[in-house]
Amino acid sequence: xxxxxxxxxxxxxxxxxxxxxxxxxxxxxxxxxxxxxxxxxxxxxxxxxxxxxxxxxxxxxxxxxxxxxxxxxxxxxxxxxxxxxxxxxxxxxxx
Length: 95
Known about the structure:
Distance between the termini: 8 Å
CATH superfamily: Winged helix-like DNA-binding domain superfamily/Winged helix DNA-binding domain
Strand content: 15-25%
CATH topology: Arc Repressor Mutant, subunit A
Number of strands: 3
Helix content: 40-55%
Number of domains: 1
CATH class: Mainly Alpha
Strand order of the largest sheet: 1-3-2
Mean pLDDT: 93
């Protein structure tokens, strides 16, 4: 049996956590992701940039009551990549 390759973009604890959250709720504010993942602002910012570069999430910056707000939203490609990652992990467990 051959092991399926794990997506290196998703094979990071923080990026996987962000994607897990976004798969279930479609979009989330940066501050909410920071709170749920216990990440620092700097680390989370770097990791969501990597997810954006891969085309897995969209980042929308806007203002809400004069405060900057960053929204992260999963893309169809991101949803597919996450599902494939989960299937690949399951193949490791079902030997």
